[in-house]
Design a protein that fits this description.
The chain is built from seven helices and seven strands. The chain has 199 residues and is an alpha/beta fold. The strands form two sheets. Strands 4-3-5-6-7 form a five-stranded mixed beta sheet. A two-stranded antiparallel sheet has the order 1-2. It is elongated, with a radius of gyration of 20 Å. The termini are far apart.
Length: 199
């Protein structure tokens, strides 16, 4: 028998589905929501629904965007010859927060992981290859996470891009092995980008 009312238990269960949220944190969040005013709860629910309705993927880089093209891809001040490839939109946001990269991005939406049934076809690799083949890009920076999956993805991408005659580099490993880019501080990210090496 549950120690909470069924509606509260349902709220806790839904919140615990969020990444990094266990039952304890979900319970704290649920009780925070219950203590909040009805207006605050409606504002939160409305914000989630609006995000689901309005947010999609940029047709150029596959970052999250409100509209067809994200603000980075549509910015003429960015260096469109320098392309940084990341696994997820969170990684892109972390690099942007560091404020050291002025090029553009390509978001793969994952990494190669045969054990999980994820190969190049499940990622945005074909779109990346088409983008590179169109021309205008002089360097591709592979900023995948320093994990087995991230390294495998970087090696695969370097293998298919290098024959096109472009410079292919990998961010320096100032980022801890097994770590995620989105959790790395700005200074370390800055040093990793500046210390990138050719692949």
């Amino acid at each position: 028998m549950s120690k909470f009312a069924p509606t509260v238990e349902d709220l806790i269960n839904e919140l615990s589905k969020l990444p990094g949220i266990g039952k304890k944190t979900a319970s704290r969040l649920a009780f925070h929501i219950l203590r909040s005013s009805k207006e605050d709860a409606q504002a939160l629910a409305g914000s989630i629904l609006r995000a689901k309705e309005r947010i999609g993927l940029c047709r150029v880089c596959f970052n999250i965007a409100e509209g067809e093209v994200c603000g980075i891809c549509s910015n003429p001040q960015r260096d469109h010859s320098l392309l940084c490839v990341v696994e997820e939109p969170n990684d892109l946001m972390a690099i942007e927060a560091a404020g050291v990269f002025r090029g553009v991005y390509h978001v793969l939406h994952g990494a190669i992981s045969p054990l999980d049934g994820v190969g190049p076809r499940q990622l945005k690799t074909e779109e990346l290859l088409q983008k590179v083949k169109r021309g205008g890009i002089t360097e591709v920076i592979l900023a995948t996470n320093p994990t087995m999956e991230g390294d495998a993805t970087a090696l695969y991408l370097a293998k298919i891009i290098r024959p096109l005659g472009l410079r292919v580099s990998r961010i320096a490993q100032g980022i801890p092995v097994g770590g995620d880019i989105e959790y790395v501080d700005g200074k370390t990210l800055s040093m990793s980008l500046e210390g990138r090496r050719e692949m």
